[in-house]
Amino acid sequence: MNDPCADHILCVYNLSRSFGGVQALRDTQVHIRRGNITGLIGPNGSGKTTLFQAISGMDRGFVGSIYFDHKSISGKRASKIYRSGLARTFQLSRPFPELTVMENLMAAGKPGATDLRERARQLLAKVKLERYWNVLAKDLSYGQQRLMEFLRVLMSDPMLILLDEPAAGINPTLRKTLWSMVRELNAKGTTFFIIEHDMSVIADLCTDIYVLNEGENIAHGDLESIRQNEHVLEAYFGT
Known about the structure:
InterPro entries: AAA+_ATPase, ABC_AA/LPS_Transport, ABC_transporter-like_ATP-bd, ABC_transporter-like_CS, P-loop_NTPase
Organism: Candidatus Kentrum sp. MB
Helix content: 25-40%
Shape: globular
Low-confidence stretches: none
Protein name: Branched-chain amino acid transport system ATP-binding protein/neutral amino acid transport system ATP-binding protein
Largest sheet: 6 strands, mixed
CATH architecture: 3-Layer(aba) Sandwich
Pfam families: ABC_tran
GO molecular function: ATP binding; ATP hydrolysis activity
Strand content: 25-35%
């Protein structure tokens, strides 16, 4: 039998999801090549976050198939998918507000790992947040909370990371730090799938781009082909 995902780390086949009478996803197809940084763009309400919800196991009410690292994860619980090496961030930060920064990071580590505290310290140092290790998460700035959420994802050393508008609402300095870490991790083999509205970021980071509109995948390719696609120009760029 042929491998359903070939040389791709993630494959989504014919994914559909409806909420009442609203079709959020329509036969969506996605293939993420291992080691790539792939972008996901589209107008608000086009189904981007719904797709991430399905892939990460946060929403299991879909029709279709999802394969990660050559194994089916369709219908799997989010916790099991996370442990298999697929992690994500959310549009809105979800810290444990009454826990310290260090406790937030350690809670996201691999079960049974013995070096969680040291790994957390190293990650905090990379983004110059080490002095906040004992600060409650609720007392961080919004941008710092977003960065901490990204670090929590890294605590599990995932193979594939889904980033849902990770730079939204954070200042340019923290944004630069975030994207620098994405590049560094990608150079070491981590695969990324990123929802991002800033086309300059997409142009700078992504070699491959998917475009959703009204739940349908209307285009896929490099930035130049996306820019010239009539469906994209009409749906996303408004021309």
